[in-house]
Q: What sequence folds into this?
């Protein structure tokens, strides 16, 4: 969940794009394309299938339930990623969410940048990487990173997007609570912490679009990173592009539109004392096809303190501030290593 803010220089370069739906990557980042030696190297990546977990097994008796819970915990330890089916979110809602998302990104770029006719908080719309100094730091994507406080309780019946987002977020929030309850239980911990600290209004939806990128054979749709939350729930299309690190090597995740992808975030790695792994991942842009995905970030309030035997205590707000400062200075996120306890 690396945040990139639209600074004034960035916005001053978009005034001529009023009739285009796409952000002006080529004009804004023209100077970066002169140095192709700094382009990402993402070729020859083997494909993998994430562990698949059928959540219906939780309802088939105690033995099946225990086995399913164990598989969730093992995947979170060994992969930091897994996928789930029979997750309780109907296909019709997923399809409606995607349809509204596609229509949203089809709006003129100037409307998206100005938050025109949208009820999202200022700064929700983000694109590219304003502070990028080379192509390896450039994300060829646009997104609406929306606080659920912007959509929960919406009574605007004429705004189909807000209505669908609220329905989707409510159901994904329930799924997230179920999964963190299981993961806490497998550590022998109680889950009241998550019920108290991770209410729906502290979580986020990120609607992603990765435009086709014909400039180079390879380009990051989003640069390598870990997520800063407890868990992320991802619904992606069939295009592919998501890649993750496993045993020191990058692997391309085979897309499965019927499943939701779950990954562990930094906060859960710290809370679990490194039992569950927050794994580096990225998205590679496609030269021919655009890609859409929707990510739900299961987050606590900013004043929530994470206690750990591996990392010093820190609040979520402190962690987010440190990430933003590091991105501004170095161009990338450092994350949990910043908070390691020093041993002598």
A:
């Amino acid at each position: 969940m690396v945040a990139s803010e639209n600074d004034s220089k960035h916005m001053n370069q978009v005034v001529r794009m009023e009739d285009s739906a796409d952000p002006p990557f080529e004009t804004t980042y023209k100077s970066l394309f002169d140095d192709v030696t700094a382009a990402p190297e993402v070729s020859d990546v083997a494909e993998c299938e994430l562990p698949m977990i059928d959540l219906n097994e939780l309802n088939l008796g105690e033995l099946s339930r225990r086995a399913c819970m164990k598989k969730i915990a093992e995947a979170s330890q060994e992969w930091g990623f897994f996928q789930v089916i029979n997750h309780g979110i109907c296909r019709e809602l997923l399809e409606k969410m995607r349809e509204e998302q596609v229509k949203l990104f089809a709006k003129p770029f100037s409307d998206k940048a100005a938050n025109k006719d949208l009820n999202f908080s200022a700064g929700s719309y983000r694109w590219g990487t304003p502070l990028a100094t080379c192509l390896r730091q450039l994300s060829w994507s646009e997104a609406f990173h929306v606080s659920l406080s912007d959509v929960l309780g919406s009574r605007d019946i004429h705004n189909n997007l807000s209505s669908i987002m609220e329905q989707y977020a409510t159901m994904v929030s329930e799924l997230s609570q179920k999964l963190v309850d299981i993961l806490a239980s497998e550590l022998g911990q109680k889950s009241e912490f998550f019920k108290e600290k991770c209410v729906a209004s502290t979580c986020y939806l990120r609607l992603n679009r990765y435009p086709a990128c014909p400039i180079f054979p390879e380009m990051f749709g989003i640069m390598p990173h870990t997520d800063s939350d407890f868990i992320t729930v991802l619904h992606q299309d069939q295009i592919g592009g998501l890649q993750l690190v496993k045993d020191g090597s990058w692997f391309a995740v085979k897309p499965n539109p019927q499943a939701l992808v779950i990954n562990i975030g930094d906060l859960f790695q710290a809370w679990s004392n490194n039992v569950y792994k927050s794994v580096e991942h990225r998205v590679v842009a496609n030269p021919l096809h655009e890609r859409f995905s929707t990510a739900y970030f299961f987050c606590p309030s900013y004043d929530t303190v994470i206690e750990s035997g591996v990392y010093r205590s820190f609040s979520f707000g402190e962690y987010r501030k440190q990430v933003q400062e590091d991105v501004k200075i170095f161009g990338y996120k450092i994350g949990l290593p910043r908070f390691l306890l020093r041993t002598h």
